[in-house]
Amino acid sequence: MRIKLTPKSPPDEDFSDNPFSSPSSEHRAMKRAREALPETPKRKAKVLERLVKSPTQNKILEKKGVLMTKESRKNLQMGQEIADSLTEQLHAIKYTGGASPSKRNAYGILRSVINKKRNLRVNTALRTKLKVRKMKLDKEARQWWRPKLRKKRKDRIPELLKQKVKEFYLSPQISREVPDKRAAVKIKEGSKVILLQRQNMTMTIDDAYTLYNKMYPEDKIGLTSFNKLRPLQVKKVSETSRRTRKLHSVKTVGKDLQLDTRNISCYCAGCKEGNPICDNKEYVEPWAPAKIQLEKSHQRSAQPTNISEDAAVKLAEVSKVTSKEKGHTGRPVKSSSKNTEETRESTSDSEGSGEDDIVRDSEESEDSEEESEEEDWKGIPPNIVKGNIVVVAYEDDWAVGTVTEVTESCKQVTVDYMQRANKTRTGRRQPTFFWPDRPCVYDVQQKFILCALQADQLKPNPATNFRDTMITGWEKIEKAYNLYYTKYFAGKKGLTH
Where in this protein does the record put region Disordered (predicted)? Predict the structure, then answer.
């Protein structure tokens, strides 16, 4: 009786089909395997290498074309060695003059094989049949082992000329360094970052190009290339910062210490030493005497120059007394005759008539300032009654509101304020107000009320569905507010509503 033995090798199977029933089952299997593998890449690669090297999985992957077989590896290695040896032989035959005829014959055979001469003959026959223009094969294209050099333009700019143009930009007559540590430009050269001081051009690109052509007429370079060669730290006139473009210079001249200024500074050797001759006089403005004018509010009355120390101390005490009498509201009080008489008696006893004149001049100047302030502001607060719409002056702006309550002495009123509309929302320069959702009620002294608005001065705005109210004649209100501000708010402290 014979027993049939099963073969040891497994039968050939078709590995082209997917062994999984569905993509979801394949995805679940991949997920389980990924979770089971180590987390680090090196350990994961080591585990996969051991799994792939197993005979069963290796054979399946070779049949599917994922891995190379041993025969294909040997053939690939052999082909690489043949190609290397052919390259060496070609180099030796081509570049050595003493080649034998047999070597030359071998070289011709190898060249015909490499260039696929047979295919060239077939293509020539097809071109003749189809009446296509015959193309000549480039000889340099056949020499595939030589490095290909890029063709350069004949009119390209030489490197020496490029460096010459960059140095021209950095010259003092074209650009000047900004004397500020913060005015630095970062330039990246390879992996390094270099900090260079910023330089501002003193002329435009066109003027610099014209000057360059006058100085070097033999150099041939266009305006576009000249502009591209400008260094990164050199900024054009349009790119200069308005903060550093005009660097003001100030100096004193002569015994009288006359103040001279000029808008654009210069840092040449002559200007640093204080010499009148400037190396860059063609590019900077000349020195001019400064004209200083004081405003009326800052001008002081003329005082004698020869004042003793005691008189100066007493003059300061008089100014302190008068400032206390003015009070926190800033309005002058005229009940200061007793204090001034006492100061006059004390000064007359100690210093004499000359110092009395100093005190009298200071008091008269203060009285004249008080009278001039009263004459400037002639707007008297009107008779305010309940329900009037009034304009109230504040330190930063003026506001509009309705009077809700008035005290018996009429010195203090209660105002329900309107809210000023935003200019971007209304699109108008004309002041516009509206009533807020929540009332804004404050007590105000009557002296801070500029005027009362009439009915014809309130005009509803139809663009906002008559929600906003425009104020007509607001120019007069602005003028009155400016006069009021100079009287009560300018230079005064402690003033509250």
Answer: 1-43, 320-381
